[in-house]
Amino acid sequence: MSKFYKTKLIEVFSKLGAQLTDPNEELSILINSEKQYNAWFTPESVLEAVTAIGKMLNNDDLTQWLNNYNFDESKPAKKVGLILAGNIPMVGFHDVLCVLVSGNLALIKSSSQDSRLIKHILQMLVTIEPAFSEQYSFVERLENFDAVIATGSNNTSRYFNYYFGKVPNIIRKNRNSVALLTGNEAAEQLYKLGHDIFDYFGLGCRNVSKLLVPKGYNFNFFFESIEVYQPIIHHNKYNNNYGYNRSIYLVGNEQHLDNNFLLLKENPSLSSPLAVLFYEYYDNLQSAQDALNQQSDNIQCIVSAAPLTVNNQVVDFGMSQQPALWDYADNVDTMAFLVKGVHSS
Question: Which of 10, 54, 89, 293 lies in the 20 to 30 Å Cα band around 37?
């Protein structure tokens, strides 16, 4: 990729980023209307997602990111099929971004849960730089593609592997995120952890669904520090999930902790039901690290302030849903794939 081309990309996407961090009236109307199509997409959640992408698209980070790659502009553009998830607003934008900046063509099969926002934001991009209108299209069915990036569940991944296994591909399955606590956290750190747990109602793969805590950990301080998130219980769908899981535990006489908007249950699984946070005790930091590394293929990121040596990305409290451009899903470098995998001779 020539220096001129990189400079142009940085200029264009920085402008888009600035527009997303300060939405105009048209975008604001769309942000506020998404709840009509998906009850989980509250105006607050959608605005958070849009502005997070805006912050990601800043001049310095775009420069640092793009300088890691060299593209051969003489090679023809490839058609890359994208199957986007729709669990949280704009969750598939990064894949689209990678295809566009790598000079390839995006065939986008958006989720029915999240199709309007991404179409609008790509139109904003085209307004800034009309040439991008030739680089993407929205499709109902993927056909005539050279490569595929597909995100789904463990079940759909088997389907994806069957249909797309003969072309270069990235196929993503279910992952969850974990927080490792030492018991020395300050109230402010645990408050920030609340963002990792409750942002987007816990529906994202970067949301914390499991706590690792030292033996004898006292959860009272944790509950006190996250009390500010109590209003989440007023969201009807979240409340329904909370009530359902609480009833299951009570009827089954299953031991659990309850602060009236979040349930905590000791369980070895990484994936907890909505409105539930699983937890597990560890003996020492080394044993906790070993447990995390054994599960690394099922973990998206780890939230902790402890000095960890693990296979997954470690982020500070409150940062799990604030990824940078180079924080790739499943730790698979999408841009390297688009350069080496799709453009290999």
Answer: 54
Burial of 283 (C-beta count, 10 Å sphere; 0-12/13-18/19+): exposed
> Which stretches within the chain are classed as H helix?
3-21, 25-33, 43-56, 59-66, 93-101, 116-128, 154-164, 187-198, 219-225, 236-251, 285-294, 334-336
- Residue boundaries of the structural domains of the chain: 3-174, 176-315
- Tell me if residue 289 falls in helix, strand or coil: helix
3-state secondary structure of 174: coil
- Number of H helices and E strands in the chain, helices first, is 12, 12
At 345, is the pLDDT very low, low, confident or very high (cuts 50, 70, 90)? very low
- 314 phi and psi angles, rounded to 5 deg: -110, 130
Query: Is it the case that residue 129 has pLDDT exceeding 50?
Result: yes
For the 176-315 domain, the top CATH level (class) is alpha beta
Give the three-class secondary structure for 212. strand
Summarised one tens digit per residue, pLDDT across range 184-211 is 999 999 999 999 999 999 999 999 999 9
Strand order in the sheet with 313-315: 257-258, 263-266, 276-282, 208-214, 176-180, 299-303, 313-315
- CATH number of the 3-174 domain: 3.40.605.10
| Greatest Cα pair distance in the chain | 66
Burial class (CB in 10 A: 0-12, 13-18, 19+), 327: middle
Instruction: Report which of 145, 140, 134, 96 is spatially closest to residue 118, judged by C-alpha positions.
Output: 96
Residues 305, 181: Cα–Cα separation, whole Å: 8
Residue 107 β-bridge partners: 81, 137
pLDDT tens digit sequence for 13-51: 999 999 999 999 999 999 999 999 999 999 999 999 999
Alpha helices in 199-276 (DSSP H): 219-225, 236-251
